[in-house]
Amino acid sequence: MDAALGFPVLVGLIAVALLFDFLNGLHDAANSIATIVSTRVLRPQYAVFWAAFFNFVAFLVFGLNVAQTIGTGIIEPSIIDVTVIFAALVGAIVWNLITWALGIPSSSSHALIGGLVGAGMAKAGLSAAVWSGLTKTLLAIVLSPLIGFLLALALVAIVSWASVRSTPFAVDRAFRILQFISASLYSLGHGGNDAQKTMGIIAVLLFSQGKLGAEFHVPFWVVIACQMAMALGTLMGGWRIVRTMGLRITKLTPMQGFCAETGGAATLFLATFLGVPVSTTHTITGAIVGVGAARRVSAVRWNVASSIVYAWVITIPAAAGVAAMAYWLVILLR
Questions:
Q1: Average pLDDT value for residue range 118-123
Q2: In the prediction, which pLDDT does 240 show?
Q3: CA-CA 20 to 30 A from 84: which of 78, 112, 175, 234?
Q4: Are the CB atoms for 135 and 277 separated by under 8 Å?
Q5: Does the keyword Transmembrane helix apply (predicted)?
Q6: Distances in Å between the alpha carbon of 318 and those of 21, 285, 310?
Q7: Alpha-helix residue ranges (DSSP H) falling in the chain
Q8: For 13-35, what is each residue's pLDDT tens digit?
Q9: What average pLDDT does the segment 220-224 reach?
Q10: What is d(CA 1, CA 109) in angstroms, rounded to the nearest whole number?
């Protein structure tokens, strides 16, 4: 580990981590509001306020299991130092900005994990990885969209059967109201899972500098700062990705939007309670594809969905590559 950092350097690194959290909210705002905007239940400017509020209050609902996984379950805490954290954040932020500029709904979560892995392995090789936690996270890449897909598919079937005797107008009106609930739950799940990733980064940085004592934990001020940074990022929106998520994959009705959000929220709640850092982008995309496929397979624009999958596949290695280069550059310039 590095020698103890000066206070200004430590504050600067925490600020960079909070910048990543802000960009995470900006990048992933679309995940929270895509369906409620695309079904025209809420205008984008109102939807982001709605999502930001529930992003912020998520710490009142969930424990800190995901933060624990990020802090101690991806890279061995013993090899964490200032350079590893800085390089990991550079890798995640650069990849987030690239995908945001291109309107690609890639995963901020996996960009951060890729950054951690790339920086850690640049320092200590393969021995840097905590393979149990990393394997669990990689497995979630496949399982989270699949679970979102299946839950949304099942919900569409159940709701369609329950509404068979209702008029289309009555169904539409009912689900416009219910979408406020489902969007709230999804934003709550998003804030609970994603903000904890930055909490884990800041906490392990403090731990590596001896600021937390002998035992790893997440201070309350870190919890509040991360939830606030994410909420502010969400307020900035992300309209480019909203178009892809809510409009280009498949056209959604309020009933389908409710099913997608509820399926995605259930997946996020489960993962957060289990301490698995899943991708909210993967989850909601799987759920949206599920409701589209429930109508008919051709309702899904599979070329758009497949391009999103390609972005998922390359996110971890791309962010890891940028982080490794950042690590080696810092070492070279010392």
A1: 95
A2: 53
A3: 234
A4: no
A5: yes
A6: 19, 21, 12
A7: 7-38, 44-56, 65-72, 82-102, 108-124, 131-162, 168-208, 220-235, 239-242, 254-274, 280-295, 302-333
A8: 999 899 889 988 887 766 667 66
A9: 96
A10: 25
Query: Can you tell me which residue has the tokens 């699949």?
Result: 146
Evaluate whether 277 touches 111 at the Cβ level (below 8 Å). Answer: no
Instruction: Name the phi and psi angles at 75, rounded to 5.
Output: -125, 140
**Is 61 within 8 Å of 188 (Cβ atoms)?**
yes
Query: What are the beta bridge partners of residue 129?
Result: 75
pLDDT at 196 over 80: yes
Cα(114)–Cα(156) distance, integer angstroms = 35
User: Which two structure tokens, joined as six digits, stand for 72?
Assistant: 């101690």
Minimal CA–CA distance to 243: which of 54, 48, 41, 33?
A: 33
Rounded Cα gap, residues 208 and 5, in angstroms: 10
Share of the chain above pLDDT 70, in %: 85
DSSP bridge pairs for 75: 129
Residue 302: both structure tokens together: 């599979």
For the record, the structure tokens of 36 come out as 């409620």
Write out the two tokens for 184: 């709230």
Provide the mean pLDDT of the chain: 84
SS3 state of residue 241: helix
Helix (H, G, I), strand (E, B) or coil at 5: coil
CA-to-CA dists, residue 69 to 22, 156, 196, 203, 310, angstroms: 21, 33, 9, 11, 26
* pLDDT interval class at 295 (50, 70, 90): low
Angle between helix 82-102 and 108-124 (nearest 10): 140
Question: For 57-111, how does the pLDDT look when each residue is reduced to its tens digit (9 = 90+)?
Answer: 999 999 899 999 999 889 998 898 889 999 999 998 898 788 777 776 677 788 8
Show the tokens assigned to 282: 């993967």
For residue 175 the two structure tokens come to 């689900």
The number of C-alpha atoms within 13 Å of 277 and in the hemisphere containing its C-beta is 31
Q: Is 40 left (phi over 0), alpha (psi -120 to 50) or beta?
A: left
